[in-house]
Amino acid sequence: MYRIVQATDVGPGVRRFSVEAPHVARHYRAGQFVIVRVDPTGERIPLTVAAADTDTGLIALYVQGIGKTTRRLNMLESGDSLHDVAGPLGKPSEIEHYGTAVVVGGGVGTAIAYPVVKALVDAGNRVISIIGGRSRDFVILESELEATGAEVIVCTDDGSYGRPGFVTDTLADTLAGTPVDIVFAAGPVPMMKAVAAVTKPDGVRTIASLNPIMVDGTGMCGGCRVDVGGKTQFACVDGPEFDAHLVDFDLLARRNQAYHDFEQVRNAELEDPSCRVESSP
User: Fold this and answer.
1) d(CA 131, CA 114)
2) Least packed by Cβ within 10 Å: which of 33, 48, 50, 166?
């Protein structure tokens, strides 16, 4: 069992968990993730590790409650426990001294962007972090990003905070006025596809942290397969980061919708257990 030391709300439907996982904290590097289970028979869900402290053995996880399992997870409080925390999994981010790096985070994807920003700053890069949300309430980790020494630009779709408009608008403006050596992106699939479209004309190397359906985290189930440059890759072992200009984002989006109807059934069960329906994905 993995004890939750602290659970706090950080945005609408989004919670931050500080979890005791010493093994993960010792071996974790930016870009890697864990797979957790709430209970012994529960669904396995992948979550990026936003931060790790080797002294305390604590890791930070940000969870957006969308499906039944993530919503159940977000019902847990400080002092509760997770049944499993397996990891760290996946390949770490390729952190080098590039020069000037831009890291784009959309919504809860900012939790994926944060450790990459910190690692890039520590490696001596000039880092511009562009983060966004639907409104001010959906913007997370702004102060933590500023504390790394990165330049932080906040965008909101409705213009309620920071710059009005999408993160891709700000990215285009940044590229127009600043020589950029590499771009990292993490967030919803449409956002990452749009980031790749902005950077491709100028040939700016762009890395996307993909978020496909994932089960075992070892490459055996095949659920996390993605098409990169016409070749099948597995996000859990070959990624989760890939060359964004080679990713088939449309195929990724379609595969991520494969269990949509099944998820609706399970969400209904969470609201009212008496409505349980036996269904297959």
Assistant:
1) 10
2) 166
Q: Which of 238, 214, 215, 217 is nearest to 227 (CA)?
A: 238
pLDDT in tens, 62-110: 998 888 888 989 999 999 999 999 989 999 999 999 999 999 999 899 9
Lowest mean pLDDT among 127-131, 182-186, 229-233, 274-278: 274-278
CATH class name, domain 100-256: alpha beta
Q: In this structure, are residues 38 and 83 in contact, taking their beta carbons and an 8 Å threshold?
A: yes
Query: From CA 91, how far away is CA 79, in angstroms rounded?
Result: 31
The answer to whether the predicted template modeling score (pTM) of the entire model surpasses 0.90 is no
Biggest alpha carbon–alpha carbon distance for the chain: 58
| Structural domain boundaries in the chain | 2-89, 100-256
Into which CATH architecture does domain 2-89 fall?
Beta Barrel (2.40)
